[in-house]
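3-hydroxyisobutyrate dehydrogenase-like beta-hydroxyacid dehydrogenase
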Amino acid sequence: MSSNENQELSEVSVIGLGQMGARLAQAFLAAGHRTTVWNRTAAKADALVAQGAVGAATPAEAVAASRLVVVCLPDYDTVHDLLVPAGEHLAGRVLVNLTSGTPEAARQLAGWADGQGAGYLDGAAMSGTRLVGRAEALFVFSGSAQAFATHRAVLASLGNPVHLGTDPALASLYDTALFGLAWGALAGFYHAVALVGTEGVDPTVFAAVATGHMPFVTSLMSDHARQIEDGRYPDDDGTVEVHAAAMDHLVQASGVQGLRTDVPEVVKALLVRAGAGGHGSDGIASVVEAIRKGGQDV
Ligand SMILES: NC(=O)c1ccc[n+]([C@@H]2O[C@H](COP(=O)([O-])OP(=O)(O)OC[C@H]3O[C@@H](n4cnc5c(N)ncnc54)[C@H](OP(=O)(O)O)[C@@H]3O)[C@@H](O)[C@H]2O)c1
């Protein structure tokens, strides 16, 4: 690995070049930014250097090389342990942490970075590795608004950077919430593929129709968010009772076709619980009330 011999600052440093970190570094390079990299296993950094990156010999050297320091490691403890020896170089830098973790861990690391005189942005890559570098790749950030404004253009090399607010915990909160949202949709998709597959429909043929259905679903999210804010649930999109009956058809049809019914059973149970809680004739967004009741029966 070559060291950062000349003293010219890079635009950005990337520490941790696993699956995600390597894609981040490549996206910065593709956007024309001078990029310094460090990785525990040197071969992965060498591969990036071959693509035009500057290699750093240590995490401290990587931190010193750029005003914007992006870390992407397995967990926050590793981030902290790696950066402690680099602490003296962090003053005046902005640390962007794209490691997955909990809101509490984000607050703690933000506090530590603040103590080093560094700005802090917690972040989450919401589009896997496959879209990194493309405009539709969502990256959520939270923490210092000033740091985000200063480095927004460079962060936009990764995709669509969205600043959620100044609380550093927000990015990981959204990360887990959006993960659950994606899995809710994907679980429904996988069940649907299995169901139409019992009649010989190819998954790709079904997917072409299913993706055309998604704009309707996303339009419901916008409308229902307003209903939830208002605490009023008009039945324009059908009542909880009507949807519970329709979900029962899906459960029954799936069972008849020899499928496991656990995916639609989860949704049916939610609708039944909302109905039992007095929302049977309300619109379906009222199920949020049944979720907010936590461990209570309704
Ligand atoms: N991959 C994705 O699609 C994806 C999507 C969203 C978020 N993320 C998040 O991104 C983060 C990184 O994920 P990844 O998929 O890139 O993981 P990965 O491919 O397993 O890479 C892990 C990286 O961490 C380094 N590392 C591990 N332990 C270390 C230690 N003790 N000291 C120094 N370096 C260490 C590894 O170095 P070596 O090369 O030396 O092993 C490697 O660079 C995770 O928090 C993950 O949840 C990943």
